[in-house]
Structures are given as C-alpha cells and as structure tokens.
Amino acid sequence: MAAASANSFLVGNNNTQIPTSQSLLHLTKPNTFHLPGKKTKPVSVRCVSSPTQLQDGSKPIPTGSQDRVFNFAAGPATLPENVLLKAQSDLYNWRGSGMSVMEMSHRGKEFLSIIQKAESDLRQLLEIPSEYSVLFLQGGATTQFAGLPLNLCKPDETVDFVVTGSWGDKAVKEAKKYCKTNVIWSGKGDKYTKVPSFDELEQSLDAKYLHICANETIHGVEFKDYPVVRNPNGFLVADMSSNFCSKPVDVSKFGVIYGGAQKNVGPSGVTIVIIRKDLIGDAQEITPVMLDYKIHDENSSLYNTPPCFGIYMCGLVFEDLLEQGGLKDVERKNVRKAGLLYNAIEESKGFYRCPVEKSVRSLMNVPFTLERSELEGEFIKEAAKEGMVQLKGHRSVGGMRASIYNAMPLAGVEKLVAFMKDFQAKHA
Ligand SMILES: Cc1ncc(COP(=O)(O)O)c(C=O)c1O
After folding, report:
1. 237 touches 212 (CB < 8 A)
2. What percent of the chain has pLDDT over 70?
3. Pick the catalytic residue: 90, 167, 169, 292?
4. CB within 8 A of 243, min separation 6: which ones?
5. What is the pLDDT of residues 130-187, one digit of tens each?
6. What is the pLDDT of residue 77?
7. Mean of the pLDDT values across residues 281-302?
8. Which of 18, 21, 29, 418 is 20 to 30 A from residue 398's alpha carbon, by CA?
9. Where, residue-wise, is CATH 3.40.640.10 in the chain?
10. Whose CA is nearest to atom 7 of ligand 1?
C-alpha cells in the first residue's frame, strides 16, 4: 500500500488511505481520527513537539512530494516543500507548547517569539536599516492602495504614479479617493510591456511620493533599477507583492515597500509594510484605525489579532531563505530558472512569444503566447496532465503565464521547458 501523504491525511482527503508507520514516524501523541465520508476503522495518530527532529535524531521523512504538482500559480502560489512539512509537523503541537500556532494567544510568549523572529529574519534578509519599521498587516496589498495615501499625504497633495501594469493602475484608482494623483507615465498604450527610461519621466516637483509597482504580476514587467525622486522631500513607494524577497533590494532607496505575502513568502492574509519611521504619524483624520501605520507601529503589529498562522508561515519561509544563503543566492537561482524559460521561448523561433521588452522581463512571472493561439487550450490541458498546473494567463491578457517564484524548484522549470519543446515538435 502506498503511504498516504501526511498532508492529505490531515485534511481528511477522501482518497486518503490509512497512513503507514512511515508517514506516522514523526507523530508521538496518541489521538484517534475517523476519516470523513468513509467507513474506516479509527486511526491512531501520534504527534511530537519537535518538527525538525525525530526521536532518533533524524529529520521527518518528506511524505508529500510524490503527490505534489508543479504549481505555476501567480498567487497564492507554491510554497517550499520543506516549509510545508515543517508546518505540518508543528501543526498539532508547536515546539512542545501543547498548542497549535492557530490556537495561541497573540499576546502569549510563544507567539511573541514567532513574530519577533520573523521580523528579525526579514530584517537580516533584506538588510533593513534600523530607521525602518516592519509591519505585519492584513487586507492584502489592495488595502495599502488606500492605506498609503491616507497615511502619507493630505487630500490636496499630489502623488506621482508610473503605471507599468494593472496593479499600478488599481493603485492610482484607489489613491484618487484620498489625494491628487498624477500618472506621469503609463504603459497601457503598449499593452504594459515596458518600463520607461527614467530620464523621460516628468515628475511633479511637489509630489509627496512616487509610486511604482516593482513587478507587475499579470504582465510580467519588472523594474531592474529604480527612479530617483525629483522632489527633495519626496520618496519612492513600491508595491513589491510579486517580487518580494526574490533578490536583494536596497531598502534605503525607498520610503515604503509593501506587498502581500502570498507569492514569495507565505500564505495569503499577511501584508508586509516596510516604512521609514519618520513617515509614520501624520495620517489623515479619516484614516480607519486598522489602516493607521502609527497604531500598528506603536503596537508592534499587535494592535488587534494579527494573522498569526500566516505570520508564522512567513517566518518559516524567511528562515528557509536564510538557510539557502540569503537573497543573493536566491536571486542567482531565480535568474537561472527565468533564463531557461525565456531562452526556450526565444529559441522556439516564434512558436512561443513573450510580449515583454527583453530588458524588463520579470524573473517571477513569465507570460507567453502561442503563435497558433488555437493551441493554447491544449497546451494548458496537456501540461496539467503532466503535473504542471495553473499555467493559464490572467483573464485580462490571455495566453499562458508561468509564475516561477522562489519556491518553484529548478526541476519544475526544466520540466516545463522540456514539455514546451515536445509540444512544439508535436505541432510543428
Ligand atoms: C503586484 C500586485 N499588487 C497588488 C496585488 C493585490 O494583492 P492582494 O490580493 O493581496 O490585495 C497583487 C495580487 O496579485 C499583485 O500581484
């Protein structure tokens, strides 16, 4: 009998078979489960406190890999397998506390140690200077589209926007409710395939800040460098939702960096805001308490109940990124993966096409189309049969999109490239 993945066992998957002793190896506290929807004998399960070590000192055996697909989703996206397995073994009893992270008080010493370690690991990863605060918030990056103008300017003040895709466009539309907006450059006319040269930008002299989306997830357009803000009192704000922690970033070039966690660093539900401390504390009066950076900063992101489990998961990812050698090494891997895929597109002699200008192609989201667009449905279906899922492009642009965030293994990209070559040969 094949070992059920411990994951499917915990979620009560109907296909789940009774776990073998192997998949229960890292469980020591007896418990009894009935698998839902099936007439089965009660199953005795044992759980341990330590996720990383078994009683004999060895690491838990990864039980899930044979069941997993290569998931090219844009977000929520694939997470590192070792992080998922660690979370799985922590799930029932976190480090001998007798509680799951989901059951802990956010004010208890256990959770405080989790959030503090997550912040300190993130600070180490991104080398965040001490004059910046790190906030773990909720509401997604979309909520920050309102939170930023509410906190950073008054209704009659102007914010400049460089719009390189749909997310930048949404940020403008939301900001318009709370300040004056000035779109100083938009790539819409070119179907969002470019980043402007910074010299050609006509920045407002009095703009409170300049907003960019560092990586446009839908269009696959990524800033490789950042504009300098013309107003000496202004600053740069970047939505880094889809390239957060994918490479080193000089945080000191920005007033604010923000992003949802669900692409590169955790599950949905956590939004990270990195903000220069002197920019905190002058929010518009109408700012809801949950959007006020000062409130969250003064309360170390614990003003109300935070997304505890999500923050814990982000912490595991930060730990994993540090163990991989930090963001320089992570970037090297990402460059290699993206290079493989873009090369395959180029070498296809037009069978596959990427519309994005070469110099600003994203390391994270690779959109491509087929010369014969009628084959796109078949491409997506056949790829799924081979365990490569979520390759359909965003509904607004069509075609395909392979999101290859940090957690996508090189093997996933190699498999996709091999599949693309086979598919082309079949349809040449
Ligand atoms: C670049 C970018 N900004 C903002 C968002 C919106 O994020 P959320 O869904 O967390 O509000 C997304 C979501 O995909 C995104 O990719």
Report:
1. yes
2. 85
3. 167
4. 214, 215, 222, 264, 362, 363, 364
5. 999 999 999 999 999 999 999 999 999 999 999 999 999 999 999 999 999 999 999 9
6. 98
7. 98
8. 418
9. 82-324
10. 141
Give yes or no: 263 in active site: yes
Cβ of 242 closer than 6 Å to ligand 1, yes or no, is yes
Percent pLDDT > 90 in the chain is 83
Q: How confident is the model at residue 64 (pLDDT cuts 50, 70, 90)?
A: low
Cβ of 241 less than 6 Å from ligand 1 = yes
pTM of the model: 0.87
Q: Which amino acid is at 89?
A: S
Place of tokens 């020591």: 28
**Which atom of ligand 1 is least distant from the CA of 142?**
11
Q: Which helix (H) or strand (E) holds 209?
A: strand 209-213
Say which residues have a Cβ less than 8 Å from residue 40's Cβ, sequence separation at least 6.
Answer: 18, 34
Does residue 38 have an active-site annotation?
no
The label of the residue with tokens 């930023």 reads 148
Architecture of domain 326-427 in CATH? Alpha-Beta Complex (3.90)
Q: Which amino acid appears at position 308 of this protein?
A: C
What tokens were used for 176? 């318009």
Atom index in ligand 1 nearest the CA of residue 215 equals 1
Rounded-to-integer distance, Cα 324 and Cα 149, Å: 36
Res 16 pLDDT > 70: no
DSSP-assigned beta bridge partners for residue 258:
239, 273
Cβ 362 under 6 angstroms from ligand 1: no
Supply the pLDDT for residue 364. 98
Strands 271-276 and 221-222, how do they pair? unpaired
Substitution site in 161, 192, 241 for ligand 1 pocket (most atoms within 8 Å of beta carbon): 241
What is the topology classification, in CATH, of domain 82-324?
Aspartate Aminotransferase; domain 2 (3.40.640)
Residue 69 has pLDDT above 80, yes or no: yes
Q: Is 161 helix (H, G, I), strand (E, B) or coil?
A: strand
